[in-house]
Amino acid sequence: MDKPLYVGIDLGTTNSAAAVFDGEQVSVIRNAQGATVTPSVVRLDKQGRITVGTRARRFVEQDPANTAAEFKRLMGTEKAIEFPAAGITRKPEELSAEVLKALRQDIHDQLGVPIERAVISVPALFELPQSAATSEAARLAGFQRVELLQEPIASALAAGWRADDDGAGTWLVFDLGGGTFDASLLETRDGLLRVVGHDGDNFLGGRDFDWAITEHLASRLSVVPRRNNPDHQAALRALRLAAEDAKIELSRGEKAQVALAQPLSIDGQDVDVDLELTRGTVEQLCAPLVDRALDVCVRLLSAHGLAPGRVGKVVLVGGPTVMPMVRSRVAARLETQIAEGHDPMTLVAQGAALYAATAGLDGRAAQVAVPAGRQVWLQYPAVSADLTPHVVGKFVGDNPPAKIKLVRGDGAWSSPEATVGPDGTFLTSVTLLPRRACTFAIEARGAGGEVVNVTPPAITIVQGLTIGDPPLSRTLGVALANGHVQVYLERGAPLPARRTFTHHTVETVAKGSSESILRIPIVQGEMTQADLCRLVGTLDIGGDSIKDTVPTGSAVEVTIELDRGGRLAARALIPAIGQVFEHVAHLLVPDAAPEALDAALRDLRRQLMELRADAFRHGLGHVIEKLDRLEARMSEAERDIDAAHGGDADAAQRARRALLDIDGTMADADLAKKWPELDNEARRVAISASSTVGLHGTDAERSLLQEVLAAMDKARKEKDAAELERQMRLASRLSGAAFNRTPEAWELYFEDAASEISRCTDLPKANRLVTEGKAALDRGDTTELRRVVKALWALLPEDSEARRKAYDSGVR
Amino acid sequence: MHELKLEDNPFFVLGIAADASRIEIEREAQKLLGMLELGFVDAQTYPTPLGPRPRTAELVRAAVAALRDPYRRLVAELWARHAPPAKPAEPPPPASTAGTPGLRDKLGWGR
C-alpha cells in the first residue's frame, strides 16, 4: 500500500472505535462482527482466555465476576480488577490494552497492514496519571508510538474537516459520552481550527441516564434492590443492562418491554421483571440530566460573551445524543441548528485519525528502505491549511546537488528552482490544490545540470483544516514551600512543552543522611494554592545520593517536560554540587475508600454550613447561590458514596473527584465571602498601580495597565472574586516592574529584609549580607544591593503549616 | 496575559511584523520549526530590542499558540509596536589570522 495510513482510536468508557485517514478519505474500521463500535468490555475465563468486545459484553450479566466493563474510569488508579475463575488480577491499563489490541487487529484484518503508531483520544480533563496509563496501555498493545488528543478537539476536527468553506464561524461540540460531558466552543477561520473555550461535567454521562432508568424500574419491582447493598448488585446489573437496551430501543419506538428471562434474586426472593417503559417516561427521567449539560453550554457561551442563538451550529457526539429528546432539547435551548451527517459514535475516532495526519504520524510499520539516490531530510506539514506551505530540506553527506525543484503530480505546477547551500540546506514552497492531497516529485540537478536521483523521490501534502499542537488540559507546576504554586506550563500550552525555573532550597540537605530529603512536588490544577492542586509526581533528592551537603538557599534549576503521550519528565540540577537528578516518582490517582469519602463529605458539609451562615450575615446573595449549587453536587456525591459502599469502585472515583472539585469551588466561595475587603484592596491596588506606572512605567506598561484596570472594573461589577484577584496580581506585577526601575525600590526592600534578620535560617550569613548591603547602599551600587536583598529573602524561613500543605516542598 | 517578557514576544520569536495574518504566522512557524529540526544556523537566534536570543522549537510553538488567542495577540501586538528597534548582534571579532599574530592580546582584546 503506497498511501499513508493515519490511525485514530477512540478508547471510550463504554465503546471504542478506530478510523483511518489515507490523506483523502476517512474510513471507520469494522470489527469481526461488522460493527463500527466495539464495547470496551473484557472477559477472562477460567483457562485465562481473553474475550473482548461484543462477545465479552454478552457475559456482563451471565458472568459479571469475570467480565470487566467501564475500567477506563479507573485508569491511573492502583485498583486491581479480579478475575476469580482464572485466579488472576489485571490493572485497568492492561484491560484497556486488550481493547486496543483487538482494534489494532481489526485494522490489520481490514487493511492488511500492521499498525505501529496511532493517535488515541482521551477526555479533556484527564489527569496526568490517567494519560500516562493510556500510553502504557498502548505500549502493552504493541504500539511503538502514540500521541494523545483530547476528545472534544478530535470531534471538532472531524466535524470541521467536512464543513464547507463557508462553514467559518463559531460552533459548539456537545459531547455526551458514557461517563463524562464536554462542551467545546470552537472557531474556524482561514482553514484554522481554534478551541475558544471548554467546559464540562466530569460526572455526567450516558451511565447516569441508565441509572435514572434503572432506579425507576427498580422502584416498580415487588422487592426494591438498593445500590448500597452489596447483595443486590447482581440484580441491579441485570436491570441496568435491560434499561440500556430499552433506552436504545426507545430512540426509535414509542414503547419498549423490559422483560428478563430469569427472575432476579433479591433478599432470597425470586422477583420477575416484565415492565412496560414508554419514551415519555424515559424523557421525563433523563430531561434533568440533559438540562444539566445544557446549563454547562450556556455557562460556556456566557463566559465568552455569547448568548444562545449566536452559535452557528452544534455538533452532537456520543451515544446518548442519538435520543431524539436530546437533539430537540439542545436545538431549542441553544436556539441553533444541529449539524447533520456526522456519526456521533465514531466522530472522535475519525478526528483522531485526521489529527494523526497533522502530526505526521503514519501508522504503518517503519520500512527500512535502501536509498536509491542522494538522501534528503525533509520538513513539511503533512496537512496544511495554508495553500503555499514551505518545504525545508537538507541533503545528507558532502557535495550536495546544486538545484532542487518540486513538481506537482498533476503536472500543472512546479516550484522555481531553489539553490542548495554548500551545507546541503534549501528552502522552497509548494502550491496546493484546495481540499486535496497533492504529491510532489523532487527533482535535483548537479552543478553541471545533470539529474540527481533523490530519496525520498516524492512527498504528499493534504490541504485542509488544521489545528495547532494539542493543548495541555490542566496547568502544571511545582508546589513551593510557602504553599503557592510556581506555574511551569499553563493550561492551553502547546505540547510537547518544556520549561526551566531556578528555585532555592529552604533547608540544608545533609550529605549521607537518608532522612534528609529535598522534595520537589509537581502539581496539576488551576488554583494558586498548592493544596488545592493534585500532586502528580515528586522529584526526591535524598541526602544519601548527593556528593556534598547542599546548604539552605542553594539554587536548584528544575526543568519540567511533558510530551504528547502524557509522559512527564522532570530534572533538577544543583549547580553548587554539579549534580543532576531525574528520577520522578509518578503518583497514582489515590484510592477512594468509602469511609474516607464519608469523612470528607461530612467535613465539606460542615464548611458549607459555616460559609452559608457567614454569607447570610453579610447579605451576599451571589455566594448563597453558589453554595446552593454546591449542596446539590454534594447530594450527587453522596449517592456515589452510597454506591461505593456497595462495592462500586467507579462510583468511588467519581465521588472522590466530585469532592475535590467541591473543595476547590468552596475555596472560591470563601474568597467571595471576603468581598468587601477584596473590593477595598482592589481600589487600593488600582490607585497605587496607576500612580507608580504613571510615574515610572513605559508607554507599553501604561497601555497594558489601562486594559488591566478595565478588566478589574468588569470583575468588580460582576463580583467575580477569582478574576478580580487575578487582575490585581497583574496590576501589582506591572506596578512592581515599574517601581523596581527606581533606585529607591531596592533601598526600601533592603531596609525591610534587614529588619527581619533575626528570623533568618543562617544568622552569620545574614549579618554578612546586611554589612555588604550597607556598603552597596553607601556606594549607590544598585546591582549589588539587588543581589544582597535577593540573598536575604532566600534566608527567611517558610511557615511550616504552609509547607506541609505544599506536599512538604523543599524549594521556594 | 501569560508573559510580560519583552524578549519572548511572539512577533520577535517568529520574526514577523505585528500586522501579520493568521496564515502568515502559521507559515512562518512551520518554516522555522523545519529549519530548527534540520539545524539551519539562520534559524537558531532571533533579534530583539535587548539583543539576539536563542530560538527553540518550544518557543516557536508557544509563540504560535499565543498568537492564535485574540486577547494574547492583542497584548503581544501592543508590546511589539511600542518596542524599541531590535538590537543587532555584536559584530564578529576580526579574524585572528589577520595582522600580527598575538597583537590582539597585546592590545588587551579578546579578554
Could you characterize what this model shows?
The complex is a heterodimer of chains A (812) and B (111). Chain A is of the alpha+beta class and 812 residues long. Chain A folds into 5 domains: 172 residues, Nucleotidyltransferase, domain 5; 177 residues, ATPase, nucleotide binding domain (Nucleotidyltransferase, domain 5), CATH 3.30.420.40; 83 residues, Immunoglobulin-like (Sandwich); 80 residues; 107 residues, no CATH class. In chain A, the strands form 10 sheets. In chain A, strands 1, 2, 3, 4, 10 and 11 form a 6-stranded mixed β-sheet that branches. In chain A, a hairpin with a 4-residue loop joins strand 2 and strand 3. The longest helix of chain A has 25 residues. The model of chain A has no long low-confidence stretch (mean pLDDT 87). Chain B is mostly helical and 111 residues long. In chain B, helix 2 packs antiparallel against helix 3. The relative contact order of chain B is 0.18.
